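Entry 14: structure prediction run for phosphoenolpyruvate--glycerone phosphotransferase. Input pasted below.
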Amino acid sequence: NYVLGKKDFIKIITALAAVVEEKRDYLSDLDSPIGDGDHGFNLSIGFREVMKNLSLWEQESLAIIWEKIGMAILGKVGGSAGPLYGSFFLKFGEVAQGKEIITFNDFYAMFSAGIAAIEMRGKAVVGEKTMVDALRPGIDAFADAMEKQIEPLSAFSAFVEAADRGAKATIPIIAKKGRAMRLGERAIGHIDPGAVSATLFLQTIYKILLE
Ligand code: ADP
Ligand code: MG
Ligand code: MG
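Run finished. Output tokens:
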């Protein structure tokens, strides 16, 4: 009976914005050899827009808050990751519609729907060197843990661990989606920046859950 309320979600989005600032240059540097070097900057533009408006949105319902976050990221961030993360947050909030108390099952369902939205929008599958390589095995491990009724924090930890392994598995492969695709074999040896940012987001949320 682990539950989350609006305060927890405000904490989460604030922590995500902070980690984006902290890792902005690092994420852009990861994007340099196999992309155009802007991944961290793109995320920073989006999350700065969110933080600029968050206090205005705080009175709204959880679903509306996440919708506004998704729309801000979709609207402000160019490139691939902006629309993908934007769609994630839109769907993430949709699952919370009509609820202000989020059970851990709801929380799982929010991630599951959000990740499905990323897959739908980007049409990537595992093994194509994208953020899906972190998120899909992550959410599958989360689903498995929920099914086995493993306690919430361990279930989320399984999510994060599987995502981290998935992100690392992007290193030795070529890309079949995104900018890195054009590099062919030259993409080998570089981790996918979107898989890294996705894993960082999950690690950050896990830390909040542990508080
Ligand atoms: P851009 O490539 O347009 O400059 P970013 O640098 O912000 O955008 O984001 C790049 C990341 O987006 C990649 O590292 C990859 O994880 C992700 N990405 C690109 N295309 C797709 C896709 N079709 N599906 C899922 N993720 C994708
Ligand atoms: Mg880029
Ligand atoms: Mg770009």
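Notes: The pocket of magnesium ion (ligand 2) is lined by residues 31, 35-36, 38-39, 79 (CB under 6 Å). Will compare against the previous run tomorrow.
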